[in-house]
Amino acid sequence: MDTINILGVPFSKRTMDDTVKLLQKQLASTDKPLFHLITANPEIVMAARTNAELRAIVQAADLITPDGIGVVLAARWQGDHVPERVTGYDMLVRLLEGAKNQPFSLYVVGADEETNAKAVGIIQERYQGVTIAGRHNGFFNAEQEAAIVADIEQKRPDMVIVALGAPGAEKWIYKHKSRIKAKVAFGVGGSLDVIAGKVKRAPVIWQKLNVEWLYRLLKQPSRWRRQLVLPKFALTILTSRKPR
């Protein structure tokens, strides 16, 4: 099996390398429909249990990767194996780096105007092979949103990345799926903030120890309410299924 079901969410068991290769293959295609990728953490898993709209979006996704050590540990508890976290930021960087050998066009939606513009400028400067097809910040009314979708439909970029938070990005992509004439689309969380230098990523040692969530909490104490979902997720996993 290529997936494992964790509380109703079918997570991919592919490694980061295999996932990037799959997306690069999709970007190289010429006749395939939009590939909607979701990078999901325990917060999205728990939200999908009570939100019918999000649950439908998750079930319709083409691939869901484990963006959180909690998902990896949950798979282990169920007696299965997810090799590693496949995070949105790392995946995005790998795809941008790969553009040197496999060029593609990119449309960027989300974050505030300053962050969006700065991140796009850095991507253009740093990553050879990436062509920016268009961009727009994450603050728009209904009329502006319609114009963004029309622009994406007209320009047909290879990839669309959306930074509207989770599950805001997932809902936005799903809402406009029929008109997003791209090959790959996915939400990138706070990746634009990191690329723009607005937010620092956890040091590598924190990442390797799988406590990046703790680093973010220490840097942004206001996140504590969001992270209350982690013990709820763990308790639900522990009580929902016994290990083999």
TrEMBL record:
GO terms for molecular function: N-acetylglucosaminyldiphosphoundecaprenol N-acetyl-beta-D-mannosaminyltransferase activity. It is an enzyme of class 2 (transferase). Keywords: Cell wall biogenesis/degradation, Glycosyltransferase, Teichoic acid biosynthesis, Transferase. It catalyses: UDP-N-acetyl-alpha-D-mannosamine + N-acetyl-alpha-D-glucosaminyl-di-trans,octa-cis-undecaprenyl diphosphate = N-acetyl-beta-D-mannosaminyl-(1->4)-N-acetyl-alpha-D-glucosaminyl di-trans,octa-cis-undecaprenyl diphosphate + UDP + H(+). Its EC number is 2.4.1.187. It comes from the Bacteria. Pathway: Cell wall biogenesis; teichoic acid biosynthesis. GO terms for biological process: cell wall organization; teichoic acid biosynthetic process. Belongs to the glycosyltransferase 26 family. TagA/TarA subfamily. Catalyzes the conversion of GlcNAc-PP-undecaprenol into ManNAc-GlcNAc-PP-undecaprenol, the first committed lipid intermediate in the de novo synthesis of teichoic acid. NCBIfam families: wecG_tagA_cpsF (TIGR00696). PANTHER family: PTHR34136, UDP-N-ACETYL-D-MANNOSAMINURONIC ACID TRANSFERASE. HAMAP family: TagA_TarA (MF_02070). This is N-acetylglucosaminyldiphosphoundecaprenol N-acetyl-beta-D-mannosaminyltransferase. It comes from Paenibacillus albus.
